[in-house]
Amino acid sequence: MEIQSQSNIFELDTVAAFCRHAPVNIPASQEGPLSGLSYGLKDIYDVAGIPTAFGSPAWLKSHPIPTVSAAFIETLSNAGASLLGKTHTDELTYSILGMNAHYGTPINSASPERVPGGSSSGSAAAVAAGLVDFAIGSDTGGSVRAPASFCGIYGIRTSHGRISLAHARPLAKSFDSLGWFAKDPDILIKVGETLLGESASNLRKKPKYYLLKETFQLVPDTIAACLKKKILTLFSKESVGEVSISPETLAQWAETFRIVQASEIWKEHGQWAEQHLTEFGPGIKERFEIAKSLNPQVIAVAQAEKNRIEKYLRDLLNSLSDENTEAILILPSTGCVAPLLTSTAAELEQVRKQLFQLLCIAGLGGLPQVSLPISQYEGAPLGLSLIANTQQDLFLLSIAKGLSIK
Q1: DSSP secondary structure letter of residue 55
Q2: Catalytic positions
Q3: What is the C-alpha separation between 134 and 238, in angstroms, rounded?
Q4: Residue ranges of the domains in the chain?
Q5: pTM
Q6: Average of pLDDT values for 341-356?
Q7: From CA 269, how far away is CA 56, in angstroms rounded?
């Protein structure tokens, strides 16, 4: 892709992906593995001298302009990548659909009548529209995986804590992870090698695949059948087993995630939020009020459950792996296509509830997950995901690169 200058990125931005309140252009500082590639940056990451809005005009006006940049920006610049601009996010990143009441909804190029997904909405929209080669997002409850699936592109949520989030606006610190999008799996893994500081050439294990039983039971039969048909094609040379994740329901897991996330959000931002609740958009205000009202005993129970699930998932993956193989779980990324822009508030809330039953798994486990653009359903993109054990991020990216997805 020919790198565009900052002076015309807004002219080229036909999908409302980039933040006009935060114009920034950081050219590559030298040649490297990412030479010639351009990227967008979710507007939660600080760039020295550039405002960080965090998807919120209230935040923008009440916080100083950062004086220090997130460290990975220099890493990307030294690897040859050029930053073209900051991209929109859902308000305070506290949503999953990509609809910001203040800055608008970036256009989903793959299905313009549908939402792009959030909260990394602008980053996903910019990649899907071909405005940049890759884009940096973040993922707390699915903010890379959902828009990747909805926009028909690749997206990875990295292992919790694998890449520093210093000089990034937090949402819920025990879940927050850096992630990125690309249309091309070769670019996806090149960015991974750069940010992770590892080489895929050093990988020696082979993947061992398992369908995550409950996740396919959760989605409509027609979508499950669509995905399984693609799985047979993608993994035709592999032996794909099946594993049950838990005797409990994923709805219970999603509730655990919701409580812990909300409690951490209130702890992090509650004092500031109370002063600005009247300035929040629909849904965001209500979520903060719910977070404030959580009972401390309920939070303590959910936190203990979160810790148990994390250990359970990591132990499960270890038990399915050996010295030569690494277990990989296969599941629907979202289990649905992106909802229509004309959906009612009740319909959107129902989608959110379903999404989190799938998206909470990697979040609770602190695990890496990559969403693959493998299919279409009702004329809209539908993603399939792979989850690996913690720190196996590059292994996942190497699998994505090796699959023949058309």
Answers
A1: T
A2: 42, 119, 143
A3: 30
A4: 1-406
A5: 0.96
A6: 95
A7: 13
